[in-house]
Amino acid sequence: MEPRATQISNPSTMVIAMEISPNSKEGPRLLYDVAIVGAGPAGASCAYWLAQAGFNVIVLEKKHFPRDKTCGDGLTPRSVRQLEDMGLSEKLSRHHRYWGLRSVAFGRELELSWPDHPSFPRYGYVIRRAELDKMVADRAREAGATILEGIEVVSATIGEQSCEINSHTLSVQARYLVVADGANSRLGRYLGARRDRSKPMGMAMRGYYLSPRSREQWIESHLDIRDNSGKIVPGYGWIFPMGDGVVNVGVGLLSTNKRWKGTNTSELMSLFLRQVPSSFELDNSKAISPPSGGRLPMGLSILPRAGKRHVLIGDAASTINPFNGEGIAYAYESGRLAASVIAEALSGEGDTALGTYDILLEEYYSSYYRTGQSFMELASNPMVMSTLVRIGMRSPTLMSWVLSIMANLMKDDLVRPETALLEIAASLANARQYLAPRARSLQVSVLARSATAATVISKSSSVWAKLTNKAS
Ligand SMILES: Cc1cc2nc3c(=O)[nH]c(=O)nc-3n(C[C@H](O)[C@H](O)[C@H](O)COP(=O)(O)OP(=O)(O)OC[C@H]3O[C@@H](n4cnc5c(N)ncnc54)[C@H](O)[C@@H]3O)c2cc1C
Model pTM? Predict the structure, then answer.
């Protein structure tokens, strides 16, 4: 018996429900194997991989595409790899491609190409999220996913055999639920997920400006934002060329760090705009719209990220990289990882398969993210940050290496972030005479933590195999 949609309308609620297949091993089959809440990078990637593997997937998205999302719009080679794996190479190639990072600080500039890597391309793109997210959602639809727009999910019930999610007008039942509703994840909190407040949280703000330098082939990052008295403030700024007369300009900081309290992204943005090289010709008259900001839940700080029948992915699961605030690649990757685990659950492994999702996330990212948090803690001291940046800006080799660590583009079997960081810290040991006693003790604690992390033998290559093969 073929699955059949049951649509029951009543004045307030339409139920898209269930049925069928009496021969199924798991009993009556629901119409949907998986319901996904949110069609951003995480939800759309999860939907694509599940639909592509033949599962029956529905995605509920509260906005209508094309919809804006506050973002720097920067795609690193890690993101590009995931998009190309979803068959989007040709569509991507119509957008603005760039080749690396121009790092600017203390009067120096370094142009750092993306590293040569066996798994990632040597280029990235800058694409407005309105276009990017629609492109991936369309791809998931082509693969067979149902995506309903303009539907805001307000509650969910996880049962023994199925889940039910509800909007004000619709109720959907599915075997498994994926929560992909972004940084403020109301649904995640509704299902009991909480952020570990001892871990860092980032804040960022961005705006669009007309600029004659919008076609540059480098994204630019500034590591020395100063206040009115010329003192370095803890934060960084970026200018990402969109390729069409516009640049995306933004700032970021770690809001949870005590030293950064009192700094907010609006102030940081004004300070940064005054400092941007005049050749970009940025001033308020070139602003296309008022700047907007958002939170960056990072470092797997949200728990629990999985239950018996549901998983959290992307920002809802705090998968952002604490080294650089990049979240799109990790949204795609966690969506794909969740898809592979749910595919196993639906293919006979049963509900216990979902437990492996969190194990895989931890295995693949956590020691790298822990290192990132320690590193950011160290670097959030303005004095330490200036020392690190001043030293780095004198050595293109060191900075290229730092770039590949911060963008998580190390060659897997050659160097783990912990050992790389140890080596960087060792080279910085030469600069210890510049560091104050407090910074020295922090440096020692980072070294100690890194050494511990380095003893953990990573199984990341097996997870990578899962990411790249299993669900495809
Ligand atoms: C200022 C700023 C700059 C950034 N710059 C970059 C960058 O340059 N590069 C980078 O890689 N990352 C960047 N990030 C991070 C990146 O934007 C996120 O990591 C990424 O969007 C996460 O994807 P997601 O799918 O998890 O969540 P989202 O992209 O937030 O998608 C969540 C989706 O869920 C929908 N939704 C929410 N609630 C509901 C509901 N109840 N029912 C139905 N649908 C719902 C939303 O409408 C949305 O479409 C930046 C973030 C900020 C704030």
Answer: 0.87
